[in-house]
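A favour between colleagues. Tell me how you read the following sequence-structure pair.

===
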Amino acid sequence: MPVVRLGKNQDRRLRSGHPWVFSNEIESIEKGLEPGSEVVVQDHRGVPVGVGLYNPHSLIAVRLYARHVRPIDVNLVRDRIEAALALRRRILPVEVAYRLVYGEGDYLPGLVVDRRMDPGPSTRHAGAAGDLVSQGFPGAHPGGTPSS
């Protein structure tokens, strides 16, 4: 997995729970990474801080999806969406339309999924995360515009 290495002391926010790596916090990055590439974020000593999705066109260069090295795959996304759904069903038991996934609040940074009254959830996403939603939930379909 490609590596994004942070500058000295730039890992403090991440280690305290913040899910974003800003572009000015990066010391080095492998060349040729495409938007949506899965990356390992390391501190300046090379110790992994987590894994995330990379966006070279945003001030938020990496959105962390896990605090340890593991693949960002359909299983991770499905588990987190199922946890979000269980929470919504518990606090909104009779509602049929609501925001199912609200990005960072549901540990899926950059991903928004709305449950609508018509069949299938509508997703707005940051690239690769939405692709994983489509793989894990074939009834989901894109709606709105991708968020940055």
